[in-house]
Write a structure and sequence with these properties.
Length: about 375
């Protein structure tokens, strides 16, 4: 195969690789909502355009495209290091270079060849200053930025060299360096996105899942109560809110120790969760020995006969591990009212009624609070 044919094959391979990076960036950005990937896709497209303009021998047009590519690459770098602190001054420098200086130099480069080396030096200095300060807070994915930024600077140098020596073609070298840059920055962006995605997932789990029992948190319960009230108002879809108390937890702690009491809490959470009838029902841990349960799509009578009874039976199903004691639950329940009552206030009212039942040592295990009693008492509290 002739040397020119081999050069065309390699050029096609490099350009094709950059186009693949663009597709990967677009797909992942749409899936994970990563703006940095969209910016990298735009910069890589400009890299493809720069190579195409070099192949077409368009005088100084590749310089202008390359400077615009540097501008977008700078904006993408700003997005990558947005997590790092104490970078206000460096960010301003890179923002000014990317949004003001480099676009102006791109226009001027159509007439003056010295604009590309000037813009590249400016971009390299500001980028080095930003990376030096962000480096300790950007491990380990920042290691991929070094070969990526280096390849981009070398690509600009190769383009300047070609402009200085008209008999030398650096198209293949520039295409190879841009491919290395595009791949390295894509890997760095993807690695960073995965790390930050895992962090966001952990934060979300911490805010929505109780670490001890695996049930929902009170915040999730309050959101679900508001949603169930909306469903009741709009579609007449009823929901029932219950509070479940482990009545004999203190006795278990006194007889078998604190570890047995902790084990009882875990067992109670598991049995409450298993007693729920539908996937839409939710249970949350409010205090050490108290849980809230929201049963959607059922009226108060049906919830008492099915869900509440199943919870009571679940506690008496089998003794706790290592003991002969069973879990004894006591429940207070009420239908979610249509009135605009804060969920926390609603939970507090049911909690006060549950405390009354515990102090009275009544034999009733399931207590239903009527709407009139619930709303009137809440109206007194909010008055």
């Amino acid at each position: 195969m002739a040397p020119m044919d081999m050069e065309a094959v390699w050029l096609g391979a490099f350009v094709g690789a950059q186009v693949l990076v663009v597709f990967f960036c677009a797909i992942k950005a749409n899936t994970y909502r990563e703006r940095a990937l969209l910016l990298h896709a735009a910069a890589t497209l400009l890299g493809v355009m720069a190579v195409q303009s070099m192949m077409g021998r368009h005088a100084l047009l590749p310089h202008a495209v390359f400077l615009l590519m540097l501008a977008i690459a700078g904006a993408q770098l700003l997005e990558l290091v947005s997590h790092a602190g104490a970078l206000r001054k460096a960010r301003r420098w890179l923002l000014g270079a990317s949004l003001v200086v480099l676009p102006l130099l791109a226009v001027a480069s159509i007439f003056q060849p010295w604009c590309l080396p000037l813009g590249t030096v400016l971009w390299a200095l500001v980028t080095a200053m930003l990376l030096r300060r962000a480096w300790p807070q950007s491990q380990p994915w920042a290691w991929w930025l070094v070969p990526g930024v280096g390849a981009l600077i070398l690509g600009s140098a190769a383009l300047v060299w070609e402009a200085a020596d008209a008999e030398t073609s650096m198209t293949l070298v520039v295409a190879a360096l841009l491919t290395i840059w595009s791949a390295c920055i894509y890997l760095a962006t993807g690695w960073r996105g995965r790390l930050f995605g895992e962090t966001r997932a952990r934060i979300k789990a911490r805010n929505t899942i109780d670490p001890l029992t695996g049930l929902a948190t009170p915040l999730v319960m309050e959101e679900r109560i508001n949603a169930s009230r909306h469903m009741l108002r709009r579609y007449g879809h009823p929901s029932v809110l219950m509070l479940v108390q482990i009545e004999n937890l203190q006795a278990l702690a006194a007889e078998f120790g604190a570890e047995a009491a902790e084990s009882a809490v875990l067992a109670a959470a598991s049995r409450v969760r298993d007693a729920l009838l539908r996937d839409g029902d939710v249970a949350a841990r409010l205090t050490h020995a108290r849980f809230a349960v929201l049963a959607e799509g059922v009226a108060t009578g049906e919830a008492a006969a099915n869900v509440a009874t199943r919870i009571l039976v679940a506690g008496l199903k089998e003794p706790l591990a290592g003991t002969t004691e069973f879990l004894r639950f006591r429940l207070v329940m009420a239908g979610v009212p249509t009135e605009e009552v804060p969920p926390r206030l609603l939970l507090n009212r049911l909690g006060a009624r549950l405390d009354q039942e515990l102090q009275a040592t009544s034999e009733r295990r399931i207590v239903t609070v009527g709407r009139e009693e619930l709303v009137s008492h809440l109206a007194e509290l909010t008055a």
